[in-house]
Amino acid sequence: MTISTEAAALSYAGDDSINPLSITWKYFAKSHVVATLRVSDGTETTWVLDTDYTLTDAGVDAGGTLTPIVAPATGETTVITLEPPNTQLTDIPLGGSFPASSVEDGLDQAAQRDSKLEDFQDRTLRVPKTDTQSGSDLELPIDSDRASKFLAFDASGKAIASSGTVDGTVPVSTFMETVLDDTTAPIARTTLGAVGLTGNETVAGVKTFSGNNLHTGTNAFTGDQTINSGSLKIGSSGEGILTSDGTTGMTITTAGEFNYPTQPAFQVIPASNQVDIPINATTTIVFGTERFDIGGNFASNTFTAPVTGKYHLEVSLDLVLMDIDNDSYTLNLVTSNKTYVNYYRVDVEISGDQRGNMSLSVLADMDASDTATISFTIPNAGANQVDVSTASYFSGYLAT
Fold first, then answer.
1. How are the residues of the chain apportioned to helix, strand and coil, as percentages rounded to the nearest 5?
2. pLDDT at residue 400, rounded to an integer
3. Which of 399, 391, 397 is nearest to 287 (CA)?
4. pLDDT at 244
5. Is there a contact between 303 and 396 (Cβ–Cβ < 8 Å)?
6. Measured distance CA(69)–CA(90) in Å, rounded
7. Residue 85: which of 132, 54, 117, 63 has the closest Cα?
8. What's the CA gap between 210 and 216, in Å, rounded?
9. Beta-carbon count within 10 A of 219 CB
10. What is the distance of C-alpha 201 from the center of its chain?
11. 394, CA 20 to 30 Å: which among 43, 303, 346, 366?
């Protein structure tokens, strides 16, 4: 027969079924057929005749059939190749009739060997035809030189065994393999334990920042973070630092102005005049209208500290119909830790009934859940006639 086409490798996808696999080229011996199973993870196994597969008789021009003994699974691939040995076993006797059949079979097997060698060559690394290197310059270093090293190329393009100490490169370590398979920069930074600079990322553990670090996106910081030198830059004007639940805790403008939109702060005023404050008593001043209350910490005439800190507290009472016979007034700013007072001597400060003002401003030390209220004391003198007007106010904020 003639061989007009090369015996190409045959590939069959597994489907969990035992199906006869067609071989479309002639093979002169069963041993010339090689079956390889490639599983889903890329591992290849060369099958053994009559153990892993059976094969129809050799010498048929149309080819034959290979039947697996165990069905290849879905995701696995069976590859069948023709690999005749590099031998010539035909002995042509001297004299007699011309052994045309033997000669043709020998030529056919020679063509098959050429096809096998060409296939092997096509699967090898080769340099272009115009490459300047040739001969021994294309040889790999000897085994003792390349042991535990990796293939690299010098400045002229010759193959060398590199340990990573000469040309500035290093072999890939086991740890770096875990980085190289990361598909995005944030994932790689997480693997490295590096600081995230862009996107929505979390920086965990104890980190030290050196130099000028620019953070964009929404970045969460946990653990102890230290700015060792340089500066920390946070986005553009109006961007800032968020709390763990995503609430903006601080913003910074390009002019360097800081704003703390969630910082506890309040201001309240009376909803109406509180009239005829009684004598011989201490009366709580009623503030029924909130002008603002960031954090919702004021209720029932009482400010409650949400966290431990130093709070600036300020009160101003606008007093109407002050009675000269009342003798004195005491303004009380009462906190859980201390009561702050402002004493007013009526019979000295005024002549006749009139309007006046009492105020008090302090930096108070308060623990979380401590309270602050305003009260007014009049001794047992004069009439119950002084009023606290709506021009009064009580305000405060967390200073530090």
1. 15, 35, 50
2. 92
3. 391
4. 59
5. yes
6. 34
7. 117
8. 17
9. 19
10. 5
11. 346
Six-digit token string for 338: 């201390």
Closest among 321, 391, 319, 310 to 353, alpha carbons compared: 321
Model pLDDT for residues 61-95, shown as the tens digit of each residue = 999 999 999 999 999 999 999 999 888 877 788 87
pLDDT of 275: 95
Average pLDDT per block of 10 residues along the chain, 400 residues long: 77 95 94 95 94 95 95 96 85 81 81 80 80 85 85 85 61 75 83 64 63 62 61 57 69 80 96 95 97 97 98 97 86 97 77 81 98 94 88 97
The full length of the chain comes to 400
pLDDT value of position 99: 81
Domains of the chain: 10-121 (no CATH), 174-259 (no CATH), 265-398 (2.60.120.40)
- In 3D space, the residue among 22, 10, 101 whose CA is nearest the CA of residue 63 turns out to be 22
DSSP strand pairing (201-203 vs 219-221): parallel
Please give the pLDDT value at position 168.
47
d(CA 231, CA 253): 15
> How high is the pLDDT of residue 198?
56
Which among 166, 144, 143, 146 has a CA at the least distance from the CA of 154?
Answer: 166
Query: What stretch of H or E contains 375?
Result: strand 371-378
Tell how strand 298-299 and strand 201-203 pair up.
Answer: unpaired
CA distance 363 to 267: 16
| CA triple 327-329-334, angle to 5 deg | 155
Residue 394, token pair as written in the block? 């009580």
Burial tier of 72 (Cβ tally within 10 Å: 0-12, 13-18, 19+): buried
Which residues sit opposite 215 in a β-bridge? 234
Residues 184-193 as b or e (16 or more Cβ within 10 Å = b): eebeebbeee
User: Which DSSP string corresponds to 248-288?
Assistant: EEEEE-TT--EE-TTS-EEEEE-SS-B--PPSSEEEEPP--
